[in-house]
Amino acid sequence: MCLRLLLACLTAFISSAAADTEYIVVSGGPAVRDFEDLRKPAEQHDRWWGNFIRTARVRMQEIHKTAPAGTHITWLVYRDGYVRRAASERQPLMQNIESVPKAYPFIKLVWFNTADELIRHINSGMNRWHTKISGFEYFGHSNMYSFMFDYSSDVYANSTCWLHQADLGRINGSAFARDAYCKSWGCHTAESMSRVWKQHTGVPLVGARGKTDYSHMHERGWHVGLSPGSRWIER
């Protein structure tokens, strides 16, 4: 009887430990309004500042409902982009973002300002011997080679802060669980970066071949769509 009890306790402990994972959601920053106003209306990306915030929040709610017990949801947000946009709009955007984990306590907000800080969190934000990354999702601007955290935020139609596929070799692949789910909700990721991501992490990165669509999201439950002719691909 004592042996059976010991085995039952050990099994429960192992199951609990196995479920102790981290799901990372990343939000890049929007363009500033002054730069967007230089574009033709049909070419403007970020008329609304919260494209990459509301979509991430809705997605984290979905993750919380379906993820196994013991899953930590961490939300990394590119801070400088929202500081600049807040100054441009004269709105308390930082407080708006910080209100999300207050309303949804299962979300842990972590600000970051550099790709180095993001990579550091992936590699060692938690003890990766015990807490593997079970999911990674990115909401923001991107091209086929990189996540662009500040596109048209610091420099018009350009980026000064990014995670390039050439940087992915600095990510420790053992930080990820073998069955981790990873997805980029940015444009063009599947055209190159997804392949390099899998080479270095060992897990696929779902991405778009073509452009993603952040317009009219309220009509589809705040989910990111695809532009005509685009499609999702798992590499």
Q: Can you describe this structure?
A:
With 235 residues, this protein is an alpha/beta fold. The chain has one domain (20-234): 3-Layer(aba) Sandwich (Rossmann fold), CATH 3.40.50. It has seven helices and twelve strands. The strands form four sheets. A five-stranded parallel beta sheet has the order 3-2-1-4-8. A hairpin with a 3-residue loop joins β5 and β6. The termini are far apart. The model is unreliable at 5-18 (pLDDT under 50).
How far apart lie the N and C ends? Answer: 50 Å
- The CATH topology, please? Rossmann fold
Under the CATH scheme, which class? Answer: Alpha Beta
- Give me the secondary-structure category: alpha/beta
Helix and strand topology:
Elements: H1 2-18, E1 21-27, H2 33-36, H3 51-66, E2 71-78, H4 79-89, H5 93-103, E3 107-112, H6 115-124, E4 132-139, E5 141-142, E6 146-148, E7 162-164, E8 176-184, H7 193-201, E9 206-209, E10 212-213, E11 225-226, E12 231-234
Parallel strand pairs: 1-2, 1-4, 2-3, 4-8
Antiparallel strand pairs: 5-6, 6-7, 9-12, 10-11
